[in-house]
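dude i think i finally got it to work??
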Amino acid sequence: MKNARQRYNELSSHREQFLNVAYECAELTIPTLLMRNEGDALYNSFQTPWQSVGAKGVTTLSSKLMLGLLPPSTSFFKLQLDDSKLGVEIPAEAKSELDLSFAKIERMIMDSIAASTDRVQIFAALKHLVVTGNALLFMHKDGMKVYPLNRYVVERDGNGEVVEIVTKERVSKKLLGLPEIEEENSPNDDSLPVTILESRPCESSYFPISAVTANFTADLLPVASTSS
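look at this
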């Protein structure tokens, strides 16, 4: 059985052509959104586009999409009963009471979203969609996280359903509790990042989204199923 690094290297070869186009688009709009150099000297190869037209266009389009997905002070969803169930499985006189309960749940969900960083992460994912065309959203109990195109690979079956996702991220050695490096010619710095690759089968917490899909906006919602 292949480990996470082997699977990531194997699947990343199929991503290369899309990643090269994404790099070129990011260099003309927002270079820090997706950078070629992932080493310690990250900004040594930073290229300034010397114009702000692309960045303004990305921000404007992302803001418009954000207003459509998560309008401020307005619920973007509604909980309601199926009218065909009234009088059959649910007493008709309980409808008004259930509507009040649903409205309370809607307010609780909206308050939870407002108190979290979900809007920030979704806005970042939208910018990745506008510029690179792809992004990965990870929904955890502690919040939401965005993976850019150069930090994950996806394997799908013949129907387009996600089979496996391998993610890559760099974390500090202090967080992992790794021992110090004592070799003479090696840097002895606990703050140096370590690349972590994690492979897991498709879970409901992961949502690969692509701008080429007709319903990519629905993939951002936790109640939606994952689509290609």
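The chain has one domain: 4-70+117-180+187-220.
im so relieved honestly
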